[in-house]
Request: fold
Amino acid sequence: MSASALGQCNVVPRTTTSSVHPLQSHRHLSTLSFNRQTANSSPALSCTRSTGFGSAIERHCVDQNRSGLFATAAVRELNGSVVSAKGHRFAIVVARFNDLITKKLLEGALDTFKKYSVREEDIDVIWVPGCFEIGVAAQYLGKSQKYQAILCIGAVIRGDTSHYDAVVNATTSGVLSAGLNSGTPCIFGVLTCDTLEQAFDRAGGKAGNKGGETALTAIEMASLFEHHLKSSL
Reply:
């Protein structure tokens, strides 16, 4: 059996005559062997698979790669662009609780959108009472299909009780569920800090502005979905 330089696949029907117990008739058996055909030929892979229904498929694949690895089709990589977000629409869900922090995060997000050519009329800001309510609002907006991405902005500061843990867990799950259920990227931009000082540091202080980072993530995800993922489905 010969194989071309590009490889060859042959289907060989085979009839099994041995008696097999009915309960074993659907068992899958396969054998794999690797042999060199001639001194000058490339190695060939022989794979024989028995499906239990009286047939077998035998494949002979020849490799051209000198390294001995099997050649495969080119791997396709998809990436979102952060060059420009012109023409995309975004919604920003902001928690009013701890608004000394969340207003600064919002400003950071709006400044980043402006730098990346997002028009003001393409941005809607929706205020909710607290972080706990972010998820349901984000899911509703995502399902409307009016926006390419939803930003979820809030701030939770640790206190003396376990309320902090309950709110953080609920908010995280809510934002994740909103994205999964709506099919629209919902970006997590909620600060979870031990102190108010830590929150200010991340809302335009020495640690930067996480609101701006959230907007940048939204731009990239919007580009990825609109230009790659949706068109490839």
